[in-house]
Every structure is written in C-alpha cells, then in structure tokens.
Amino acid sequence: MDTLAPDLRTMVRTPLHDSHVAAMRKAGTRRAFAPGEMLTTLGAPQAEFLYVEDGEVEAVDPDGRRYGTATIGPTQFLGEISFLNNGAVMLANRAVTAGRVLAVPRAAMLRLMSEIPEMSDIIVSVFAGRRRRLIESNRASLTLIGAERSREIRAIAAFLSRNRIPYSSVEPDSPEADALAAACALESHAPAVIFGDHKVIDDPTPRKVARLLGIDLPLDDTEIHDVLIVGGGPAGIAAAVYAGAEGLSALVIEDLTIGGQAGTSSRIENYMGFPTGISGADLCWRGEVQAMKFGTRFAVPRRATALARDPDGLFRVMLDDGAQVCARAIVVATGVQYRKLPLDRLSEFEGNGIYYAATDVEARYCRNTDVVVIGGGNSAGQAAMFLSRSAHHVHVLIRGDSLAESMSSYLSSRLDADPKITLHRMTEVTALHGETALDAVTIRDKASAQDWLLRTGAVFVMVGAAPNTGWLSGLVALDGKGFVRTGPEVGGRSTYETSQPGIFAVGDVRSGSVKRVASGVGEGSVAISAVWAHVNG
C-alpha cells in the first residue's frame, strides 16, 4: 500500500544543482558555525532555509542524543516538511564540527521554490521523507502518557496521527513513564503531554498542541484573502492545490484534521493512481503538502461558526475562538459527519469506547477483542477490514438485509469471505453498558425481535450523513436535508456557485454530489476556475 512519502533509507537523494545553489546565494547569506553550536532549536520557528556548504551537522533528540546514525554534510540541507507552513522545528540540529551554512530567509526560499520546480521537487521529497522517518521512529519531540486511560490524551493522539504529526506514546505504568514523571515533577502514572524533554503542557488540548507546533496559524482579521476554503477534506484540499497553483492567496481552515471524513479511511483502493491502495490520511497529507508548495496556508484546528457578507462585498467568517477571517470568495467544503445514534450515555462513551474513525490510533485500543462496526457503506467496510487485522473478531451491524446498494462490490465480497468478520443484517444497537468505559452493548435482531448482549469495548459508528452547514448563517440556499444547493437553478453562475455570488460549494456538502473521494477532488479542482473569475472579474 502506498504511504505518505518516500522512505529516506531507499530513496536515492538527488543533490541540489549548482544553478539552484547559485540562486540561493543571491537571496541568502553565509554564516559560520562552531562545534557544538545549535543551528536550530526545538519549537522555534523555521525562519530560514539552511544549506550546508562545509562541516557536519547532527539532528538531536529532545534528550540531547544524536537522532539516528547519519549526519548532514556539504550539499545537504536542514529542516523538514513543516518549513512549508511556517511550523515549529520538530528536531533540533547541532554542529559536530566547524563549518558554514548558506541561510536563505523563508519567504525568499519559498519564492525560489515556486520559480524553480526542479529544486522544489528535491527539497519537498527530502522534507517529506524526513517527516515519514520521524513518524516511524517513535522518537519524537512530543510524548503522550496515558492515552490508553485518558479520553483527552486519546483525542490528542488522534489529532496528531491524522495530521501526520510525529509523537511517541508511553503507557502510564511503564518505567519510561516513571522516568518522565520524575524528570518533569509529574504525579506518577498521571496522563500528560510533554514537549521536548521537560515542557509539560498544562490541561492539554489539540488546540494547545497545534499552537505549540506552529500549525494553528495566528490569523489577522485585517488581512484579505482571495479565497477562504472551509474544510480540509479531499474537496477542500483539491481546491487548495488549484487555488495556490492559480496564484490566489488561499487559506484553509479545518476544525479537526486535514483529510476530513476521508482521512479516517484506513485503505482506499478505488482511487485512480494507487493500485495497491492508500490510506485517506496519507492521500490527503500528500495533497496538503502539494498545496503548501504553491503557497496555500492551513490553520488547524479552527472551526467556522458564522458567516457574514460586508457592505463592500467581502465575506467575513467567525471562528470558534472569536477570531475572524476575511476573503473575497468562500469555498464551502465542510463535508458531512456521521449521525449520532439516539442512545442513552452516548456522549459519556464517545472517545472512550464509541468512535467515529478506525485508524491506527483506535485500533491499538481494541487489539484481540471483539469490536462492532455500525454501518453498511464503504467507510464501514474499510473499517471492518482494517480492524480485522488486530481485533479478535469484527461484528458489522447493518439496518437492512443487503449491502448491494451502499457498498462497493469488492468490499462486500471481502467482508463475506473474511472468517474474522460477521455480518449481522437487520440489526441495531439499543443500549450501551459500562462504568467508566464501554464494556458491552445490547443488540437487537429486528427480524426476530430478539435482544442479545455482546461484550465489547469498541463500537465504530459509521451511519448516515449529516451536512456541516449550520455556520452558513442562512446566506446560501439549502435543500430539505441541509445540503448546499448550487448551479443555475439557484442563481449560481457556474455549477458550483451557490445562491450567494462568491460562495461556492464542493464535495459531500453539496446537494446532489456523488459521495466519493474522487468526485470531491474533481469538484474542488474545477470550482477554482469560477473562484478565480469571481475574484478577478
């Protein structure tokens, strides 16, 4: 299966060409360094691109040890993919010997990368490969203690994992957790989030972690963007790529993780170009990197709460933290969310037995146990196949008596053939049980009107599709189910323009759209031509 980036251990590194270095010398300055000098520090902004002309540099773990076995020498460069979005340094760099770097200011370097695509390809490939190695090494600057016990820490783990941000997870009763607790003056066995080797994040939340890492961008309500893309799923990311490529100043805001609902799919096999499949998160991460290369910015986690149009025609989006964003055009790509089951105690168990995504994060909490997947669509089928690798058994509950209308044929046939998966047709969950965490559910067989109890600590809910349109404040026409209407029938000047000129809708949130990743990507790509015409008309 394809993954998020090339593996640096097998990727043949192509050095920057002499012409690339000559261009950087015109924009940057040379700077000498001494042995032991820190060239970058953990958590600091990546304000410069550092190209090593002479000497040797090592990457440094939070505890001061050398990261890996290799060092960086002449013709190589420092940094990783967060450089594109002005994120914080995730791995510090220290000089091993005396030497010299060519330091290019970030803005100038991004301009050069946009002008010289061959140079950009080399840099982005190496940056992305370094991010992959950081994720796989389990030696990151962020350490989470107690995700197995704490719903709050588990939410942070999900946020980091789905945004492809490296972190390490430590069990609270382990010797490593004891050592961290002693070093950071923490209560033993207490859940915690630690940055570096000693910085404890008080009352940690995804927003606080994002701010620390520099991905929760500070927003200026006086800045006017050409286009604001609300939603970071496939449709929104495709719009972000094409907006940047067309020279529009674009900002994407996403309330949880880049990838949206598609980002929770563990394996997508019917997306063109990936014959062995790719996870939704990896596919969307690649798109995010591509958009950032063109200059599009991302702010995560930020949730839109209201929308207004000013007398001068500009749009103003209010966010959940009180901030505002102003833009000449809006692309609504907020997608849909799974419907919540009408069950007592549902909110009590959400994130602690009830889940709306099946990724590596959730799978680790239900290893060798029975799990339940509720739903009959492709997302439910992909989740069941993924969970069957680690769970003892997967029970798939569907309301009807057939999967033929809601699930792709290749998936339904695999579910039928897998001995670790049982399909329960005409069934539903009627009750949740447990004290501090879910430990059982009551299931009703609607055909026989019989109830039975299943011991499980993990239920994955993947039913229905409720559009995320409440924040639109009545400015655009919706259909009877709350999806956004577009096109000439509501006065839109193009297929994806809404009843309000300058507001466009793409992907699953659009009324009449095909609820598939590929169609969302297509809509987001095509809509930008109409956005460009509106902004420059």
Write down the CATH class of the largest domain: Alpha Beta
What amount of the residues lies in strands?
15-25%
User: Overall mean pLDDT score?
Assistant: 91
State the separation between the terminal residues, measured CA to CA: 44 Å
CATH architecture of the largest domain: 3-Layer(bba) Sandwich
Instruction: Predict the CATH topology of the largest domain.
Output: FAD/NAD(P)-binding domain
Please give a structural write-up.
The chain is of the alpha/beta class. The chain folds into four domains: 18-135, Jelly Rolls (Sandwich), CATH 2.60.120.10; 142-213, Glutaredoxin; 224-337 and 467-536, FAD/NAD(P)-binding domain (3-Layer(bba) Sandwich); 346-461, FAD/NAD(P)-binding domain (3-Layer(bba) Sandwich), CATH 3.50.50. It has 13 helices and 27 strands. The protein has helices at residues 18-27, 106-115, 117-137, 151-162, 175-183, 206-213, 234-245, 280-293, 346-349, 360-363, 378-387, 409-417, 517-536; strands spanning 29-33, 38-40, 48-54, 57-60, 92-95, 99-105, 142-145, 168-170, 192-195, 199-200, 224-230, 250-253, 297-299, 304-309, 315-319, 324-332, 336-337, 354-355, 370-374, 393-398, 421-425, 427-434, 438-445, 450-455, 459-461, 466-467, 503-505. The strands form seven sheets. Strands 11, 12, 13, 14, 15, 16 and 27 form a seven-stranded mixed sheet that branches. α2 packs across α3 (117-137), α7 packs parallel to α13 (517-536) and α11 (378-387) runs parallel beside α12 (409-417). It is globular, with a radius of gyration of 24 Å. It starts with 17 loop residues before the first helix and ends with a helix. The model has no long low-confidence stretch (mean pLDDT 91).
